[in-house]
Structure formats: C-alpha cells, structure tokens
Amino acid sequence: MKFVDEATIRVEAGDGGNGCVSFRRERAIPLGGPDGGDGGDGGTVWVVSEPNLNSLADFRFNRVFRAKRGENGSGSDCRGAGGEDIEIPMPLGTQIFDVDTEELIGELTMKGQRIKVAAGGFHGLGNTRFKSSTNRAPRRASPGSPGERRDLRLELSVLADVGLLGMPNAGKSTLLGAVSAARPKIADYPFTTLYPQPGVVSVGQNRSFVMVDIPGIIEGAAEGAGLGIRFLKHLQRTRLLLHLVDILPPDDADIVDNIETIIAELGEFSEELAGREQWLVFNKIDLMTDEESDALIDDALDRLGWTGRHYRISAGARRNLEPLCKDAMEWVEAHAPVRTVPDYTLLDDAPPVRPVAAPDDHDDADDDLDA
Q1: pLDDT score for 217
Q2: Chunked mean pLDDT (size 10), the chain, 371 residues
C-alpha cells in the first residue's frame, strides 16, 4: 500500500428534522388540541482511531463524508427519527486540523479514541411545544438547525519510540529489517525508502519498543530538497534518535560533513527536535578491518567533539546489534512518560455535595422560544 501521510476531506453533519404543525382529529373530540411532534437530531461525524491502519490512503478517493439528516416530526406527537452518526476510522498518530481556521481539533493517540469533528443539527420543535394557557392552538413549528460542515486537513505522524535518521543508503532499512519483523525495501540506490516504515523490536519477554525508518535526509531537506521535508515531522513523534552513519560513504564524501549536515537540517526544521537525545551509530564496519574502522571512527569523534553515546555496528552482518537494542530499550523504559492521576479526595470539612437534577431540555427550549 502506498503511504499517504497528508489528506484533505470534507465532513458534513446531518441537519435536524423540522417540527410538525398538526392537530388531533378524532370523532367525538372536537377540541383535540395540537399534537405536532418534534423532528429528529441530525447525525454527528466522529473520527475514531484504528490501530490496523497505517496510512491515509483510503482518503485519496473518498473525500466527502455526510451523516444522515434527522427526519421531520409528524402528528400524534410522533418525533422524527434521529440521523445515524458516522465514524471515520483513521490510523494512530493522525492530527486533525480545520482548514479554514488552522485550528488543531485533536489527534488520535490511543486505541478506541473518538473525536467529534462535526456536530449534528438540533431538532425542530412541533407545535405541541408552543401551546400555553393563552395560546391553546399554536400554528407554528420551528425548523431543524443545520449540521456543521468542515474541511479538514489530516496529517499522519508515525508513533514510535526510536527514530532512524541519516543520509540515503546509510543502512537504516537494513538495520530495521535485522532487529525487527519489518521487511522494508532494501536496494543500493538513493531514496530506496519512500515512506516511513515502523517495526517492533523485541529484546526479551514483555520488553519491546517501536522503531521507525524514514527516507534519507540530504542537505536542504528542511527547505524542500529530496524527500526529507515530507517525513522530518515523523521524527517529532519519537523520543530517541539513532543517527546512522555510513563509514564508507559514496563519492568519497567525508563522514564528518555528512553528520554535520544531518544535524544542521534537524536544527533548521525544529530546534526542539535537534535538542533531543541522539546517538551516533557507525554502520558497515564489516567492510574494513577492525583497526581501520576504529581509527576512522575515533578520528571522526575527535573532529566532531562528540561526547554522547556512539555505537559501531554492521547491520548487514548483524554485528553488535544486541547491545544497541538493549541500551535503547533501557533508555525508552527510563524515559517513559509518567501519567499522574488527579486526587479527587474531598476534605474532611468540605460540605457534602448535593445532587442537582438535570434540567429538561424540552422545557429550556420552550422558555427560549417564549422569550
């Protein structure tokens, strides 16, 4: 399936049904009085999280979603049926923006989460609701209110614990395929990876984290060069960045220059992202002797003045991958977000809470109309 991380859709909630003007007509009951019923409420549009989806590809063709209108009221105090709500499944990590106001309506971060994006219209009132001691035969009813209509922009950012970044062909896809069950496309040409590929890395019983591979970043990616501009935002949903470095880059490029280019592009895109925990992972050490690779990597670290963590691996030969994954797992566990539960305990001297009866929405509607 082609990965689609942005889409624009239109949602239209159902209109409320109109109220009815009707009078009771039965034999031997000459003064039956008004019996027009209310209309039904319009259907509401909801967005729901669906863990089995991993892209917004379904919205490439189906871009308009309409909920049903509420039915009109009828005589004998019959209320119209309410319009059926519709639910739009979207993958976890989807952010929903209003196109007109650029407001962030919400984001799907939990399984089973539901977000209302367009409220259905309120039902119209039948003439029964307008009767009073001074108006015993009202001949008016109110129409239903229109449902909300919105244009929404959807943006998908893959939710992951660890993100892989680096130059094209640095070995990110190879590493992901070596440590997880993911099977990304691997080839020897630049930009083999065209869309983010997540994978679950297991390091023991009940211990695992999600790693995501994004397309290679090149110089100028933050301004739109290459494919990086479309996918740099996926790294914003990760907590740990593994910067893969090819110790034998093509065209005899300098590995220090490549490292500094990636770090500079992160800073151009987001200062907050550039300040996150980042580990250097020197890849393809199997392509030279240990002495040669150690000398090359030590020289690069000295020139960079790097004081953070660094690793020396070979994703293709699967060398030194276990320590990297274990350390990443320990870091993810140590920096897991802590969720606090608010304390709702009442004070000893607090007055007792008296239950308050909920007001009747029909009475409120009558008061508003009479006013």
Answers
A1: 57
A2: 67 92 82 88 92 77 90 90 91 88 87 90 91 87 92 81 82 84 58 64 81 64 45 70 85 82 78 81 89 90 89 88 90 70 42 43 45 40
Which residues, in sequence order, are bridge partners of residue 156?
94
pLDDT at 348: 44
> Can you give the pLDDT at residue 10?
93
Do 185 and 217 meet the contact criterion of CB atoms below 8 Å apart?
no
Query: What pLDDT, on the 0 to 100 scale, is given for residue 315?
Result: 85
Q: What is the pLDDT of residue 185?
A: 56
What whole-number distance in Å separates Cα of residue 179 and Cα of residue 315?
9
List own/partner pairs for 297-301 with CB under 8 A and 24 or more apart: 297/247, 300/245, 300/255, 300/256, 300/259
Domains of the chain, first to last: 6-156 (2.70.210.12), 162-334 (3.40.50.300)
The answer to whether 161 and 332 have CB atoms below 8 angstroms apart is yes
37-46 as b/e: b if 16+ CB within 10 A: bbbbbbbbbb
Distance CA 70, CA 252 (A): 69
SS3 of residue 176 by DSSP: helix
| C-beta atoms surrounding 227 within 10 Å | 20
Collapse the DSSP code of 95 into the 3-class scheme (helix H, G, I; strand E, B; otherwise coil) and give the result: strand
Nearest partner of 126 among 237, 248, 262, 19, judged by Cα: 19
Query: Which residue, among 31, 131, 34, has the nearest Cα to 75 in the 3D structure?
Result: 34
| Angstrom distance (rounded) from CA 249 to CA 253 | 6
Note whether 69 and 42 are within 8 A (CB). Answer: yes
**Tokens representing residue 75 in the block:** 């005589």
In a 3-state reduction of DSSP, which class is residue 318? coil
In 3D space, the residue among 149, 136, 126 whose CA is nearest the CA of residue 69 turns out to be 149
Judge residue 267's burial from the number of C-beta atoms within 10 Å of its C-beta, 0-12 exposed, 13-18 middle, 19 or more buried: middle
